[in-house]
Amino acid sequence: MSGSSTPIDSIDARILGALNDEPRATVMALAERTGLSRNTVHARLARMEERKVVRAFERRIDPRALGYPLTAFLLTSVKQQKLAHIAYSLSGIPEVVEVHGLTGAVDLLIHVVGRDAEDLYRIAGRILDIDGVEQTTTALVTRKLIDFRLTSLVRQIETE
Prior knowledge:
Elements: H1 10-21, H2 27-34, H3 38-50, E1 70-78, H4 83-91, E2 96-101, E3 108-114, H5 117-128, E4 133-140, H6 151-158
Antiparallel strand pairs: 1-3, 1-4, 2-3
Helix pairs in contact: 1-2, 1-6, 2-3
């Protein structure tokens, strides 16, 4: 995982909280909202970007709006020596939206989206065709109970 191992402090958390509430906010707006100077906000944001605390801005698009209503996770076993090749190959499959390396019984957790069950089957087959991929087990998502979130963690640090 990339990023800094140095935890953020409560001032950084205030800035991140304000940025999370209003992702398009200018430095000046963040300064007003947090009660910090513009220079402080600017310098701290630059430092957090350098440390990869703040990642590239990308709006979260619902895959269903793009015609991909199905979400699945492929638990995948691979040959470790071929991991770089596998990661490169997976990055070339548009329906692969995220990949995590794991410890334990399987090596990768591959998050994919598909148009329908047949499309998911095609995507899983394409993944299995990658040299070094040994086995996949597909788990179809039937419901999302909690969306990706970090706000509660940021708010916790803000109050420390």
